[in-house]
Task: structure prediction
Amino acid sequence: MGADKAVLINTEDDLEEGDAFTTAKILEAYFEGKEADLILGGNVAIDEASGQVGPRLAEYLGIPYVTTITDLKIEGENVTIEKDVEGVVEIVETSLPLLVTCQQGLNEPRYPSLPGIMKAKKKPLEELEIDDLDLDEDDVAAKTKTIDIFLPPEKEAGRVLEGDASEQVQELVSILKNDEKVL
Amino acid sequence: MSNKVLVIGESRDGELRNVSFEAIAAAKKINADEIVGVVLGAGDLEAQGEEMIKYGADRVVTVAHDNLTTYTSEGYGQAALAVINDESPDGIVMGHTSIGKDLTPKLASKLGSGLVSDVVEIDVDDDKAVFTRPIYSGKAFEKKIVTDGIAFFTIRPNNIAALERDDSRSGDVTSKEVDVTDIRTIIKDVVRKASEGVDLSEANIIVAGGRGVKSKEGFDSLYELADVLGAAVGASRGACDAEYCDYSLQIGQTGKVVTPDLYIAVGISGAIQHLAGMSNSKVIVAINKDSESNIFNVADYGLVGDLFEIVPMLTEEIKRLKKSAL
Ligand SMILES: Cc1cc2nc3c(=O)[nH]c(=O)nc-3n(C[C@H](O)[C@H](O)[C@H](O)COP(=O)(O)OP(=O)(O)OC[C@H]3O[C@@H](n4cnc5c(N)ncnc54)[C@H](O)[C@@H]3O)c2cc1C
Result:
């Protein structure tokens, strides 16, 4: 899709459980000394959905961060950002180095092209383990623990209301008012 | 063992958001024996402090500074940390809002503490707070504890009921001076995109439209329905992509996560990414012309039919109901 180099930090053999702290600490160790001008991350993961890694990493690296951005313009050291804040767009001015987390709408990801796929085969993919980052398990031990995972109770099948539109509407309003008491 | 819990309030247009009061209730749930409210902002914050006390805080610390007029992680971070360092709390609670999501990981990093985000339920087991939170877009839940650091968590709005407001409560509201400096991110401008009205993430009732609504004008009838219900209007990504409405209304995996008492999905097919944002709503009503539509699998009540016929009828019926209640 366009990256010149990729790095895989493989924690499979070393870590049993991790949390946002673990991930951010490992990334910190990787970025240390690299002096990245701009770090782009996702705003929230689909699985755990904590949204902590970006801000934590920026904090460890001592650089400012802006989360959930929908536009990014860089001129020299100066950065102008549009940030999505619950129905409001904030125009943020800041400077590099910087970490941002991306919100839907920032860009349309391009599709990998065939020549792109061919070229990607020649691009370097570095593989590291936490040893290579001078970290050991204790340095990145999770600060939270999951003690249970469960499925929500199966929802009772809903009711499809009968009759023509006006009968359905009348029944619905009566249910919402008298049974559910939400009106 | 004493258990002091800090509740970091959040205000909008000079008034505390309801989730801040819910956060006070959450502090109670982890058996706080002292709840200290924190109000950060500019100007006179006394009234907001008093409000936190009426809702259950024992005392409140305010930090006012011009650099706290609009939220920045750096400004609020400095102010909040100054209070946290003074108080050495055993726990911290904040709403899982834009600001809460942005600020709490920074504070947790500074404090070297674990943090559990987006909590919807709280239990206490053997003196340890156990937090329940949705994972995999609400398809499953996990119970989490903090193993290193303080009981630091954010709560999803509309899930933990605020305590009853009690006018007879009193407590100290003290202000603390913090020199908030060296801000590297500056908010130049704030552009309001969503129409004024009820805040989506805290709304009790949401009327949401999808691609089935077919046009910007089609959304007008949703606004009329929302109006009579005192509801907020939301949308699927399908409707946002088609430019029937602004992205700020989007509900779902990449939009807002909402938990209203009543969610009315109009012309929305119920894609998994949409369900991620609303499936925990208390009562779900679906209006869709396709009886096979997936939205009916999560709906408590389904109306199969043409939304252009049903929505105006529903608006009229509710108007009639509200009138007769007068
Ligand atoms: C990574 C990713 C993230 C995503 N995030 C989100 C997200 O956050 N939120 C989100 O909503 N989606 C999200 N999506 C998109 C999602 O997959 C669906 O495409 C989208 O939700 C569909 O929107 P819709 O239900 O409005 O449209 P459609 O699927 O087109 O459904 C329209 C519905 O309207 C009904 N209809 C049509 N005309 C009428 C009528 N006259 N009367 C009654 N009913 C009628 C139809 O029967 C149909 O069920 C995401 C997708 C991806 C890949």
